[in-house]
Design a protein that fits this description.
The chain is of the alpha+beta class. A two-stranded antiparallel ribbon has the order 1-2. It is extended and about 50 Å long. The N and C termini lie far apart (54 Å).
Length: 98
């Protein structure tokens, strides 16, 4: 088989076949927010958008009593190139704004 032992598993997953048990009320591993803009905007003009998204994530983390660890910012360009930056502070943030 071309895909090795894992090929059968990939074949099943590609067709929606998965016999793993469903665990409904497990805690989420991450919280995120995203937005799509209608037209291109310069990177220098994204601060307000990023702050709004950060506030959404912060409020969601408070509702779930979660503590932030790593902050990730992902930007997808109109060409679908993805730029990702992450930061893990030594002390968890205490508020959405710095």
């Amino acid at each position: 088989m071309r895909l090795g032992r894992y090929g059968v598993r990939l074949y099943e997953l590609a067709r929606g076949i998965d016999h793993s048990p469903v665990t409904p009320d497990r805690p989420t591993k991450s919280i995120s927010a995203e937005d799509t803009v209608e037209h291109d905007i310069p990177l220098s003009e994204t601060e307000d958008l990023i702050r709004r998204l950060a506030e959404k994530v912060w409020l969601a983390s408070r509702r779930e009593s979660r503590t932030a660890r790593t902050i990730v910012l992902k930007l997808k360009t109109k060409e679908f190139n993805i730029h990702t930056r992450s930061y893990t502070p030594s002390v968890p943030p205490r508020r959405a704004r710095s």
